[in-house]
Specification:
single chain; alpha/beta; abc type-2 transporter like fold; five-stranded mixed β-sheet; 5 strands; elongated
Length: 376
């Protein structure tokens, strides 16, 4: 190896070490991808939230609930007193599965009759719904086998033996469990979050790299006007992309739009504050467009994996589920899917809307203040 090549390599290493922030981001990114892919990239759904409407409240009904609880597929999260309350929990995505036990359950099971229980599944997430459907039917069959064994032991005869338990399933909002119904609303969230934050961050840094931002500073324009002027075109572009995706999704992929369009656009605008805030905030830390892209991707990767966009949140470890509450995209995906597929009103999604407002205004305020300080 000649001295010229050694000098060039040495020069490149010096150049890398002079930009420690980019170096740290590059070294941390593979570790983040490793943990996210290792823990979050799974469809092995467990602990699906289950809401129970037990109209019998007998020892036999409690045995059935124990069978579902101990199977590790379901988490008995809610006990309700009416079908309306159960519907509200599924509409708001607090519960993914509902179990309705009829009032004559114990009478049928303890006799020689056939009890019928109903399993209601939220089909807006086909991955969780298909797993829950298979698990619910399998657990029901196993419990029916156990009841039959108790009947045989009690009667000491196989005569008149019949299936003691029938699990009837209903899939709401997406009966055929079409994956496009799940993915198309998610694409809207990904576009709003990824493209607007990247475009905003690189646009501001590009002005600084070219030296044109100094020309803007010396003009009579105020710093607040400069911020608005820089991000407003991307706001308009983002809404055009949302309309484009919704139109193609509805007319080509047949994804239903059950909710109010103005509410969908209003919530999308609220979420847009978050992505613009992240992009603007990244531009205040970055010196180059490459560095701005890395900073945005540093926030984008966890959001995509921990928001429920690719993989069900129920399939992730508990510590990642808790971290997911820090991801604004999680709340927006829950809102947009509920609005498009379920047609819910603002009262059902008000918790998620409040969370989006806190994230949006908080990040946008911090970004605007820091951007104004950098201009000063």
């Amino acid at each position: 190896m000649n001295l010229r090549l050694i000098s060039l390599i040495r020069k490149e290493f010096i150049q890398i070490l002079r930009d420690p922030r980019t170096l740290i981001l590059v070294l941390i990114m593979p570790i983040m991808q490793l943990f996210l892919l290792g823990y979050a990239a799974t469809n092995d759904v467990r602990n699906v939230p289950l809401a129970v409407f037990d109209q019998d409240r007998s020892p036999a009904a409690r045995k059935l609930l124990a069978a579902y609880r101990t199977a590790d597929y379901f988490e008995l999260a809610y006990e309700v007193d009416s079908e309306e309350e159960l519907r509200g929990l599924i509409d708001g995505s607090q519960a993914r599965v509902g179990l309705i036990i009829p009032p004559d359950y114990s009478t049928q099971v303890n006799g020689n009759g056939q009890a019928q229980v109903t399993i209601i599944l939220d089909g807006s997430d086909p991955t969780s719904a298909s797993t829950a459907l298979s698990a619910a039917q399998l657990i029901g069959q196993q419990h029916a086998t156990q009841i039959n064994a108790e009947r045989i032991a009690r009667q000491r005869s196989l005569s008149g033996l019949r299936q003691p338990l029938e699990v009837r399933t209903q899939v709401w909002y997406n009966p055929d469990m079409i994956s496009a119904y799940f993915m198309i609303p998610g694409v809207i969230g990904m576009i709003l979050f990824a493209l607007t934050s990247i475009l905003t961050a690189t646009a501001v840094v590009r002005e600084r790299e070219r030296g044109t931002i100094e020309q803007l500073i010396v003009t009579p324009i105020r710093s607040g006007e400069l911020v608005v002027g820089k991000i407003l075109p991307y706001v308009i572009l983002a809404f055009l992309m949302v309309i484009e995706v919704m139109t193609i999704g509805h007319y080509w992929f047949k994804v239903p739009i059950e909710g109010n369009l103005w509410l969908i656009m209003g919530v999308s605008g609220l979420f847009l504050l978050t992505s613009l805030g992240i992009g603007l905030l990244a531009s205040t830390f970055a010196r180059t467009q490459q560095e701005a892209m890395l900073i945005v991707w540093f926030t984008l990767l966890p959001s995509l994996f921990l928001s429920g966009f690719f993989f069900p949140l129920e399939a992730m470890p508990k510590f990642l589920q808790w971290i997911s509450y820090l991801m604004p995209l999680r709340y927006y995906l829950a809102v947009i899917r509920s609005l498009m597929l379920k047609g819910v009103g603002i009262q059902v999604i008000q918790t998620e809307v409040i969370a989006l407002a806190i994230f949006g205004f908080g990040l946008m305020t911090a970004a605007a203040l820091r951007f104004r300080k950098r201009l000063d």
